[in-house]
Amino acid sequence: MDNLVQTKPMPRLFPLSGKAIDRRCTPVNGGARFSLRLPAASISTASAALGVELAVPVNRASAANGRTALRLGPDEWLLLLSEAEAVPVAAVLEARLTDGRYSLADISHRQTGVVLEGTAVTDILNGGCPLDFDLAAFPVGMATRTIFCKAEAVLWRQSEGRFHLEVWRSFAPYVWNLLAIVSREYAV
Questions:
Q1: Which domains are delineated in the chain?
Q2: For 44-101, what is each residue's pLDDT tens digit?
Q3: Which helix (H) or strand (E) holds 25?
Q4: Tens of pLDDT along 135-146?
Q5: Which SUPFAM superfamilies match (predicted)?
Q6: What is the CA radius of gyration of the chain?
């Protein structure tokens, strides 16, 4: 049998090889995060209360007025908003969803975010995430629960070269270090 190195070109053997000048990983400081669960019958009422459209397809994001809703399942959203809005948002949902058939959990203490951007961002993410980041497969506005190496994460594509990655705080140093290691491939 032929030696693999002799039969395959180097870029094929090392798909992360390459250089890119433009790449940044920035921690997201502050902000409130909520896990919202509610039945289909309550989506329009909750959308009006939040000022963000919740009736988007699963694995899509919706944003308005500084609030973002990532639809992760048929009855599940991750809400991202400012810390100052945490208490008012909880109060307005409680006032509007009078049937009590919803769950709103403040998970701000559990999660943190990282914004990843640049020309090599999809290659860097593929260093630890098995998703296809081609624009046709993972378009702008898509958001999904996934993994980065061994850490559960929520990933949202904000633009062609910009992603928002949410991870549990206990995994944040692990994910940050792995991003740094993979990013070294793209250092100039």
A1: 22-28+110-186 (3.30.1360.120), 32-106 (3.30.70.1520)
A2: 999 999 999 999 999 999 999 999 999 999 999 999 999 999 999 999 999 999 998 9
A3: strand 23-28
A4: 999 999 999 999
A5: Folate-binding domain
A6: 19
Q: Phi and psi dihedrals of 161, rounded to 5?
A: -115, 25
Inter-residue contact 165 to 174 (CB < 8 Å): no
Supply the pTM of this predicted model. Answer: 0.85
| Alpha-carbon gap, residue 114 to 112, rounded angstroms | 7
Backbone angles phi, psi at 81, to 5 degrees: -155, 175
Q: Which residue has the tokens 């296809």?
A: 132
From the number of C-beta atoms within 10 Å of its C-beta (0-12, 13-18, 19+), residue 61 rates as buried
Token couple for 24: 């940044």
